[in-house]
Structure formats: C-alpha cells, structure tokens
Design goal:
The protein has 447 residues and is α/β, with parallel strands linked by helices. It has two domains: 286 residues, FAD/NAD(P)-binding domain (3-Layer(bba) Sandwich), CATH 3.50.50.60; 145 residues, Elongation Factor Tu (Ef-tu), domain 3, CATH 2.40.30. The strands form four sheets. A six-stranded antiparallel beta sheet has the order 10-11-12-13-9-14. It has a five-stranded parallel beta sheet with strand order 6-2-1-7-16, with helices on both faces. A three-stranded antiparallel beta sheet has the order 3-5-4. The two termini are 16 Å apart. The model has no long low-confidence stretch (mean pLDDT 92). It binds flavin-adenine dinucleotide. Flavin-adenine dinucleotide binds next to helix 1, strand 2, helix 6 and helix 11.
Length: 447
Amino acid sequence: MTNSRILVIGAGLAGSEASWFLASRGVSVVLAEVKTLKLNPAQKNPDFAELVCTNSLKSLDPDSAHGLLKTEMRAMGSIVLAVADETAVPAGDALAVDRALFSKAMTDRLRTHPLIKVIDVEASDPLEMMRELECSHCIIATGPLTTSPLESWMVNNLGAEDIYFYDAIAPVVDADTLDYSKLYYKDRHKQPDERADYLNAPMNKEQYDAFITELAKAEKVPPKDFEDWKFFESCLPIDLMAERGIETARYSCMKPIGLELPDGSEPWAVVQLRKENLQGAAFNLVGFQTRLTYKEQVRVFRMIPGLEDASFIHLGSCHRNSFLNSKRLLNSSMTSLKFPEISFAGQITGVEGYTESAAMGLYVASQLMRRLQNLPELSWPKELAIGALVNYVMTIEKPTPSNINFGLLPTIELTKEQRKSGPRKKVRKSFAAKRAREVFEVFKTQL
Ligand SMILES: Cc1cc2nc3c(=O)[nH]c(=O)nc-3n(C[C@H](O)[C@H](O)[C@H](O)COP(=O)(O)OP(=O)(O)OC[C@H]3O[C@@H](n4cnc5c(N)ncnc54)[C@H](O)[C@@H]3O)c2cc1C
C-alpha cells in the first residue's frame, strides 16, 4: 500500500472515476472542483459528474463499441456505471439515467468516502496546489470547458501550439457504405499511377452549384451564448465558405487543381476523403467542419457523388472544447512529458463523450496506481475499446476528439464464408466485438 496523496482536479466524469478508483484501492485523494463557486454556462447544478446534455450513456448492446467499453469499465469497478445502473430510466438497449439522481448519488458517494477530501476551489496552478496540499501526483480532469486560470497555466507551461480550445469537426463516413464506382484515388499533384492516400469525389459545375446552394441555405446550429464563433481563416466551416460566395470552396478545400480524373480531365470541384484510421475503415471529409444541424448534414452531404447511401460514423460540429495534442505532450499513461507528476484524464486528452471520458479517468488512475506500486505501465491491446481510444489519441495526426467506434479498432479481414453470412459492416462489427471479448478475457487478469 502507498502513502501517496493524489490531487484530482475536476469532479466530472473522468475526475470522479479516477478519484473513486484510487480511493477504493486505499489511496488518499484530494478532489478539487469549482462548481460550488461558479458554474460554467453548460452546467446547471453544483453536483458532480453532471451530464450537461443528453442523459444517455449510450448502448448496452455487448456487440456495440459502447457495449465493449462498458464491459471493460465494469471490470475496473466503474462508479459511473454502477451509479448509472441504480438511477437508470427505461431507454431500450441504451443506458440512460435520471440525470439529477445520478449526479446527486455520485456526489454523495464521493463526498462521503473516507479517503476522498473534496475542496471547493478553482484550480489555476497545479504544481503550487500539489505543494500546498502535500500531494505527490496530480490528475487534471477539467474537461472541455476548463476554466481560464488553469487554461492559462497550461498554455504558459505546456505550449500554446499543442492545446486546442475550439473544436471544429468534419464528418466521418463508413468506408463500407461508399459507392466506389463514382470515386477515384489520387493525391494532389501526384501522378495517377503513384500510390495515393486520398479518395476523391469529383463534381461537375451543375453538381457543385447545387451543392453549395444547399449548403448555404441549410439549417445551422446557433452558437450557445458561451461560444463566441471565432474561426481561423484557414479552418472555416464549409457552410460559412458557401455563405461567402459560390466560388469560395472551389478555391479552398474543394479545389480541383492537381486532382485530374483517371481520363486526364479536371473536374469542376472535388471533395477529398482521407482515411480516418490506418485500416481505412472510415474516411473523413477533408475541410468539411460544419455548423449544419445533424439532419441537414446527412441530407446535404449525401448530395456528394459516391456518398448517396453513406452511413456517417459521426457528424461534424463546431463547439468550445479544450483538449491537448496528447501525442506530443503526454506519454501513453497520459502523463505529461514535461511534468511527470501530472497526468491528464477525460475529454481533455482528446476523447469525446461521457462514457469515453469516464473510461479515460479509469485508465489514467489505473496506470497511476501501478506507478505508485512500482509496477510498469500496462499496455492495453488496440483490439479493446479502452486500448483503441488510447491508441487513437496517441497516434492521430491532427487531433480531433472522438467517440468510441469500431473504426478505431483494427480491421477484421473477413473470409469468403464470413462475408456471405450477412451485411459486411454488421458481420465485421460482430467479429470485432467477439475478438475484443476474447482478448479482454485474457487481458483482464492483469488489471
Ligand atoms: C455543451 C456540451 C454538450 C455535450 N453533450 C454531450 C452529450 O450529449 N453526450 C456526451 O456523451 N457528451 C457530451 N458532451 C461532452 C461531455 O461533456 C464530455 O465528454 C464529458 O462530460 C467530459 O468529461 P470530463 O470528465 O472530461 O469533463 P467534465 O465532465 O466537463 O468535468 C470537468 C469538471 O472540471 C471542473 N473544472 C473545470 N475547470 C476547473 C478548474 N480550473 N478548477 C476546478 N475544477 C474545474 C468542471 O466544473 C467539471 O465539473 C458535451 C459537452 C458540452 C460542453
């Protein structure tokens, strides 16, 4: 047993999990939370682990990516899932909760745990706090709306270029649902016979004009009052480009230059699709960050040739979100390379969603626990949901927070027989889920 005292900053999904995990294993925790002093504009009450939007923790189906994540979290003693089970409301195969009861129960458990001392404070300098509170390590789990004093500390001490405050996400499509007869591989300015990474959807003038017109008039999500839309000119939402003029996108992310068709002619405009993961199971629409409502995105983006029947793994959005370039700032235990006594957990590491953030709280606490016990870091296989999330944030070229989905897991190559057994996408997912369960059966003995 260790005598260390750990400072956890932020009693959201990740910080609550991390605190509970450590305290349940005999480690003293100081849990610092600002909510009783001031709420951020997305929060409504001072209770911990607040679900600020939907009350759903997503699917319970063991064959779904969220189902896999839950299995792994339960094996680690997740308090979020235990309390969610107790406060669940009927929601088909999803785990949805009474949000007020859920947060209240989480708060009661954490505030009354004998090894957790809650302090109501707005953190600004974690190093100074650790000294004052005599803590050996710190986990920062302050989430997408980390308050500005701590954000400033991160910028000044970790480097502004690897910290993002604003998230503009482009949609991601399932590779199995594209019509490849309308698409072609070619990288800009490379010869047609050279190996290419980009898949291109060409448009003629008529298709382009109709597409831009629909983009400009489609319904957008209005900014919340705490989100002041300020866009970098180099990263404008595609719909804002459309509003600026019919030609704007054709001189930006849809420019056709260097993307000749296989017959050598140049299309009027092009939508480029880039592999979302090494396996090529999903593609993102390059430069298509957008403010369109989800419904409108599906309608308008299915106008792109080859995407008429596309299934979207996730849709685009623009919102306030503080997160790190984990690959450059952290090691795979989510510990700072510069400050080895500080780790990060939750959405701030580059995942997205309640359950994913909670899972990253468990993961980080479990790695820290091993450190306190002088055990080496435990490497999570990529075939597992938690392993896939860690692998994602540690390898993604351009950090973009992601939910758990099968596109993050290594692709399953199907045999001829397996391909015949049902729709390819469904069969692949079911085999990936089966593989994850088998890998986890062996792996969990190390937890
Ligand atoms: C507007 C909005 C809507 C969302 N909708 C959904 C959704 O529908 N479904 C979904 O799955 N996910 C949604 N998310 C994402 C979801 O909020 C996060 O994924 C999840 O809550 C992140 O968990 P976390 O523990 O990393 O951070 P949080 O749950 O945000 O917890 C961070 C905690 O740190 C505290 N804190 C911040 N700064 C400081 C400081 N300086 N000192 C002390 N404490 C501090 C905060 O008060 C908060 O309690 C939404 C996010 C936002 C902002």
